[in-house]
TrEMBL record:
A Pfam entry, by short name: Cyanate_lyase
EC numbers on record: 4.2.1.104
Protein name per the record: Cyanate hydratase
Cross-referenced SMART domains: Cyanate_lyase (SM01116)
Provenance organism: Plastoroseomonas arctica
Keyword Lipoprotein: no
Amino acid sequence: MTRVELTEKILDIKREKNFTWKHICAEIGGVSDTLIVGALLGQMKLVKPLAAKAAALFGLSETEERMLNEVPYRGTAMPPTDPLIYRFYEMVMVNGPAWKALIEEEFGDGIMSAIDFDFDFERQPNPKGDRVKISMSGKFLPYKYYGAEQGIPEYGFKEE
């Protein structure tokens, strides 16, 4: 069985048992819903205790449980073709240069981590149509200035 086949099996069982992602995440627990769903969709790994809970919930074999604990090959072809995912890509294409400029002005020369990262969303009722509020928080990682001589900053933190 491949990881893609395991994802399809999990989705089949989810449909068969009429599970919601909220139910699945509550049963597995231990980490963010985004990480759990991402792992079940093949983009993240579950630590062993959570892989065991997922295997029990979905009735998976020991081999399938071990697959949930393996580091996956992550990502998809770019640009994404799913309209909702593409909108995230579009937000970054359109707003990315401004976000970059604002973050660098505040923090210095570096990046926002996508590994040490939190994501949350909430539904906001609105008479013109409900809205999706997204919150993302990533650790700032300054670039290291290799070979910096004495008196020259070693990292790209904002200079005062």
